[in-house]
Write a structure and sequence with these properties.
Elements: E1 3-5, H1 11-22, E2 30-34, H2 37-44, E3 49-52, H3 58-65, E4 70-73, H4 82-96, E5 100-105, H5 117-130, E6 134-139, H6 150-156, E7 158-161, E8 167-168, H7 173-185, E9 194-197, E10 203-204, H8 205-216, E11 221-224, H9 227-236, H10 241-255, H11 265-270, H12 277-284
Parallel strand pairs: 1-2, 1-4, 2-3, 4-5, 5-6, 6-9, 7-11
Antiparallel strand pairs: 8-10
Helix pairs in contact: 1-7, 3-4, 4-5, 8-12, 9-10
Length: 285
């Protein structure tokens, strides 16, 4: 069975490729795609086939997808352009005769108020209309997303936010990659499934501060701000208005409980407990 992976040069995609190989999937039946030629060369060194593609170029997608049994469509990183790009990929898969699509979506994509969700909801609708058998992996939050907190925590001993008592059921990228790999190794067994993937434990931001302190060897505390004060602090630190506004909106989602679900579906797919936040933070130092 041949598997083509979009975004294979990214953090998640590379881990999926590695896990497929670790489980004995033939390297010549993996087609790793991406835009960065140098990163593709590194993947080619593992023995997998590679193809340079651009989600904005349907012809490049059709060429890469031709003959593939299954497509892992890893959601693109260009916010605001993803629906069109994902639609290109789905149409190319249909024309190339791909038999199954696995898509990395967002938690509760069709009903959530999560700031990132609308493009994922739209993509799920495109997939449903395509007629191609699908599996939806609604990936929760990555532990690695909090690597950016090391700098402030190390320098000031303070982590700021406006998440209140909200909790995050995060897991490591490796956990999510192993889940995708498990589905890709037997896609028919997961046809039509929509998996809500999250960590086994939902933590609040004082726990993030505590874990950062443990890893850094110093006291770190969490300071909860109003959304207005949070926005002012972020722009005062040099973030542009758009990025700062996004982070404040995300904390509002967390405050409202949009990332706290612990379904257990991720640990069931990978056959082990998910990776605790502190363990990932230790690996990033």
């Amino acid at each position: 069975m041949s598997v083509v992976i979009t975004g294979a040069t990214g953090h998640l995609g590379r881990l999926v490729v590695a896990d497929l190989l670790a489980h004995g999937h033939p390297a010549d039946r993996i087609i790793a795609t991406g835009r960065d030629a140098d990163r593709l060369a590194a993947l080619a060194a593992t023995g997998v086939r590679t193809a340079r593609v651009d989600l904005d170029d349907p012809d490049s997608l059709k060429d890469a997808f031709r003959g593939a049994d299954t497509l892992l469509l890893i959601s693109g990183s260009e916010v605001g352009r993803r629906v069109a790009q994902h639609t290109n990929a789905v149409e190319a898969a249909r024309e190339a005769g791909v038999g199954h699509i696995v898509y990395t979506s967002a938690p509760r994509a069709t009903v959530t108020t999560l700031v990132l969700a609308p493009e994922h909801k739209a993509t799920e609708e495109v997939l449903a209309a395509s007629g191609i058998p699908t599996t939806i992996l609604r990936n929760g939050w990555y532990n690695e997303n909090y690597e950016q907190q090391f700098g402030p925590a190390r320098e000031s001993g303070v982590v700021i936010g406006s998440a209140g008592g909200g909790r995050v059921a995060s897991a490591s990228r490796q956990d999510f990659a192993e889940a995708a790999s498990a589905v890709l190794r037997d896609p028919r067994a997961h046809t039509g499934a929509v998996y809500e993937l999250s960590g086994d434990t939902a933590w609040a931001f004082p726990a993030l501060a505590r874990d950062l302190g443990e890893v850094l060897g110093r006291e770190v505390v969490y300071r909860d701000l109003t959304p207005e004060a949070h926005l002012a602090a972020l722009t005062g630190a040099g973030l542009d208005e758009g990025t700062a506004g996004f982070l404040v909106a995300l904390d509002a989602n967390i405050r409202d409980g949009e990332l706290d679900a612990t379904s257990g579906e991720l640990s069931r797919l990978i056959g082990r407990p998910t990776t605790p936040l502190v363990e990932t933070l230790r690996s990033l130092v």
